[in-house]
Structures are given as C-alpha cells and as structure tokens.
Amino acid sequence: MKIACVGGGPAGLYLSILLKLQDPAHDVTVHERGPEGSTYGWGVTYWRGLLDKLDAHDPASARAVEEHSVRWNHGIAHVRDAATRHPGDEGFGIGRHRLLEILAGRARSLGVRLEFEREITGRNLPPADLVVAADGVHSALRARHTDHFGEKIRTGRNRYIWLGTTQVFDAFTFAFVETDHGWIWCYGYPFSPERSTCVVECAPETWTGLGLHTANEADGLAVLEKLFADVLDGHPLIGRSTAQGGAPWLNFRTLTNRTWHRDNLVLLGDAAHSTHYSIGAGTTLALEDAIALAGALREHTALPEALAHYERERKQALLSIQSAARYSAQWYENLPRYLRLPPDRMFALLGQRHSPLLPYVPPQLYYRMDKAAGQSEALRRLKRWLGPKVARTVHARALASRK
Ligand SMILES: Cc1cc2nc3c(=O)[nH]c(=O)nc-3n(C[C@H](O)[C@H](O)[C@H](O)COP(=O)(O)OP(=O)(O)OC[C@H]3O[C@@H](n4cnc5c(N)ncnc54)[C@H](O)[C@@H]3O)c2cc1C
Fold first, then answer.
1. 166 falls in which pLDDT band (50, 70, 90)?
2. Which residues contact 115 (CB under 8 A, 6 or more apart)?
3. Is the pTM of this model over 0.85?
4. Which of 4, 119, 303, 312 fits 128 for a cystine, CB–CB 3.0-4.6 Å?
C-alpha cells in the first residue's frame, strides 16, 4: 500500500511507524512543511496510560519517550500569597522537539521516507492509495472540503500564549495573579532537566488592560516576568526565536468534524479534532488516533470499511474527553467565580473543573457535596448521574430560548 502522510507532527510520524511495523512492504512517506528539527511549542504533558499504550505498539519508541521525559507527582497552586500543594497523579512532560526527533528517527530506521520542507496544499497532492491529513488544526487538506467534513470551530474567549522558561518546576504549577485589570494565570510544568513550559492565559479585558495587545514580544515577556516573579524565581520567560516571528497570543480553537474521511483521504490528530490545552491531551489523542487507524487498516482489507471503523472508534472514545475539555476551558473563562473561595477549596475545584455539574451549582455547595461524596458511594453515583443531566437540560433550554 502506498501511503502519504501530510504533516510530520506526533500523529503523522507515529502512524508511519505503526504502518511500517505492520507491513514493511508498505510504501510510506511523511511530507512535512517545516525543516527537520523545527517545531512550534515547548513541552507537552502526558500520563502513564499513554506510555503503556506506546509500549504495547512499539516498545522501542516507548522506551525512548520515557527516557527523555521528566515526571512529577504533585501539583501546586499559588493564589495571591498562599500556596496549596496537593499530591496527585504521576504526570510526565517531554519537549515537543525531543518527541518529534525520537519519532522521526524511529520512522526513518523502519524505512519511512521523510520529506521535510515539503508543503502539501492539495494541488501538489502525491498519488497514493491512502492520503492522511495529519497537518494539524489548520489542515489545508481538510480546508479543501470543509462542507464535506462538516467542520465546526468554537473559539475560546480567553487569550493565551505558549512560552518556555529556564525555571524547572518540580510540580505541575499553577499561579493566579490579580492585577488592576483582572486575573492572569499560568500553568507551568517541566519537560527537560533545563526547561519548563509556561502557558499564560487571561480574559481579553485583562490582556488589553495590561497593554499586552500592543506590546512587542520583549516588552510583553517583561510584563509577564514581573507578574509571575514569585514562581519564576528570577528565571526568564522565553518566546519563539525571531526567525519564527515571536510567540503569538491566541484564542484557542476547539475543532470538531462531522466526518473524518472522504474517498482515500482521512483526518488524523488535530486535523480531525482539538481539545483545550488545559487538559493536556492533544498529543496523547493524536497518538491514539494513529494507533486506531493503523489497527483499522490491519483489520479491514477494504479501505472504506477501515476508515469508517477508525472514525467510529475514535469519535466514541473522544466523547468524554471533549466534554472534559469544554468544561475545563469554561472553568477558566469563569475563573472569578472560583477565586472568591479560600485557596484550598479553590484548588479542590480546580481539580473538578471537568465536571458538567460544577457550572450550575454554587461553588461552596459543590465543594461540600464533593467532600461528602468522597465518603459515600451513593452520593458519588448521584453526582455522576446528575452532572450530565443538569448540563443537558440547561443546554436544551438555552437552545430553545434562542429560537
Ligand atoms: C498551548 C498548548 C499547549 C499544549 N499542551 C499540550 C500538552 O501538555 N499535552 C498534550 O498532549 N497536548 C498539548 N497540546 C496539544 C498538542 O500540541 C496537539 O494536540 C498535537 O501537537 C497534535 O498533533 P498532530 O500531529 O495532530 O498535529 P501537529 O502537532 O500540529 O502537527 C502537524 C504538522 O503538520 C505540518 N503541516 C501543516 N500543514 C502542512 C502542509 N500543508 N504540508 C505539510 N506539512 C504541514 C506542521 O508543520 C506540523 O509539523 C497543547 C497545545 C497548545 C496550543
């Protein structure tokens, strides 16, 4: 089978590895528009479950990924002058550069052709039995058939910027800072022994109030370094290199598609769906898509069946994660609602931000319910049952009132 993967991100590279492992006779090429070793972003988080999956499908790359990751086992939230530390799930961070380097090396060693600096827009689409659009959330291949794919985009209200820092956090670190123009916060996590990621987010009014909308990159970083001085402890924030045009402030775009395939073209990873970065799942989902697509191609000899199977399986698997990501993004958009709580309660509800029930229950009451549910299985079940029900009812009412 001749396969063209457009996009050398985690999704495209991992799929190419799995297909070659499945059948070394497959002719697989990855076309990546950027030069080798250049990528956007800093570190990405993931959890133990991903390592287990990678290990089951390709132990060699799983080992390399684990070896080059750093880990933490607690979270810390700084709110005003208080810091609350909570033991939590073991988490992992790896630099995006490093992850792509590992996957590209492994793909090459298996005989995948990697063509860097090759942008595929549709008109120069290489002939292939299967074309995989793994070209990210702004997919040019998807954009050629927007109506067919039924793309929907929800643009988040808050502004964010993806930065690096030389401060090496020893935990997943949140810092919430109050300014004269509203709250601004950052999420920091290490991804190598020398570097951490630092994503900064705020409401649009705070962004303009602080002058971040007009500041050049250096001045903007200086403002942020001052605001987050306590957690950065004298370390600088780092944008992108000037050659890459500086780190942009963006609004997150949550993408869904009605269908994920058209003839021999299939969407993979962020080209098919995106989930808000605050749940740190996009890379994991992209890799899981690759596992599912490779599995479907192995199980079904007819391409239409394989692609339909892949789409069904992944859409189903994504339902709860997309819901968690939506509620998590909304939690941050409604942050002042939670920042009135004492810091330990606020942090407890930060951990509950995926809950469909939380937006509809006063935070103090929710906190008490959650505490009680911790001691009673019956209450836990009630909470799980009530959450989606309340969310559905409120959503249906909102739709009806718009008609
Ligand atoms: C601020 C932020 C923080 C994040 N943090 C995390 C995290 O902690 N954990 C996590 O799991 N995920 C995180 N993510 C999400 C994660 O980065 C993405 O979900 C993941 O990179 C998707 O992988 P992909 O391979 O589908 O797409 P991408 O990684 O976007 O790769 C697409 C590739 O296609 C190439 N390309 C694009 N167009 C073309 C073209 N026309 N021709 C050829 N090549 C092309 C691009 O250069 C790119 O290399 C974060 C995202 C953001 C924005």
1. very high
2. 29, 30, 31, 32
3. yes
4. 4
